[in-house]
What does this fold into?
Amino acid sequence: MELRGPLSGKDQKPVIFILALSSFMASLDATIVNISLPTIAESFHVSINTVSWVAMSYLLVLSGFLLVFGKLGDMKGFRKIFLAGFSLFTFGSLLCGYAFSIEALIGFRLIQGIGAAALEAIGPAMVVIYLPKEIRGRVLGILATVVSLGVAAGPIIGGFLTEYVSWHWIFIINVPIGICAIIMGLKWIPADRITKRPGLFDYPGAILFFFALALFLWPVNEGLTLGWTSPAILGSLCISVVLWILFILREIQCQDPLCNFDIFRNRNFLAASLAAAIMMLAFSGVEFLLPFFFEGVLGYHSSFAGLLLAIPSVALIIFGPLSGALSDRFGSRGLATGSALFAVVTYFMISMYSQNTSILFIVLTLLFVGVALGVFFPPNMNQILGQSKKDEEGVGSSIMITMKNVGGTLGVALMGTIAVLTVVHNEGFDPKTPVADIPRGILVDGFDVAIMAAAGIVIVAAILSAIAKDNSG
It folds into this structure.
């Protein structure tokens, strides 16, 4: 059927369910893999830097294609792009589940991430297109809750499957769910009419953005292994700089750009957006390292480590709505700044982890991380979206999501590199040494330095949050 207006009555529920399912799966797969990385590294006998690309490849294409699919949804119709994305995500999951090498797994994660980008980019827009105005806010709230549940469930489900079945099943489990969702989508999601053509798609801008980001992340992650002054590393960094310059020039001159850089002229928007990216950088880096500490140093089983890693997400679910209400009443700047400073203290506490750290201390610090993030992000989003011009809220929202994803991708590369660099510098290990072959005590040294770096980086987020004024101020 063809959409002739907002869906009514019985036609709304299946569409809401499909959107919620897609949001859950995309957010689940962003976290379900981390808990399995130590096992995957051991399975393929590879180093921390190498296995980090299993997480980074997914985040890379997720960051690089969000703006792309948002634009394509406007041009080609949301139903078509959404179902294509779900199909690609499901197919990529199947390939990941049967990956025969670490290189194949990384490549298949790229496919999975492209599909996830389509789901994440146009899900909120489909709420506006398909549902009546009276229930949009409630449905967006449902989707936000489902995303948080997916983030929280990822480590638990991933830990259970890794320990009791196989790490392959963290991907294979998506396949039957994805097939059912696609069948439901074909039946229940109507074809949306494209009333106007929003211009030509900015293919050069999309290509420049993706390769500029990829050629920056690769040397950050591999510089230690290949040598920071090697031709490959220096050449990649130089090409990345050139591509970033070309991307900015392209977007400034393009009539229908992927990213409107005029919005960055607003100092408050820029400061708050950078603060969000930095908070995601620190948290993603810490979240990437924690499974190696819990399993490789403390010897916890994957299922128990997964339960621990779910604690921050659960705390975020609880404290996020409360923080949002408080920011509406008292303003955003104080809450965002205070919670960022609290995160600094929390990461400093986590950097004190050792082989003798009590489980109570671990639970408390992970709870504090969730509280810090839960209190930070709602007022931070208010700071960002409150600075967006009227009729440009969508632009501000997409840029905010992209910057957070880029920050998260960089965090995995940066924290992994710092941890390995510490081990290499202090103990003389080869950077290519498989993580399973590094003694526990030496791993602790690399972990502690990396987490201290995260604490220092978040200080910058606190300063930026203090700079960014509320919309009223």
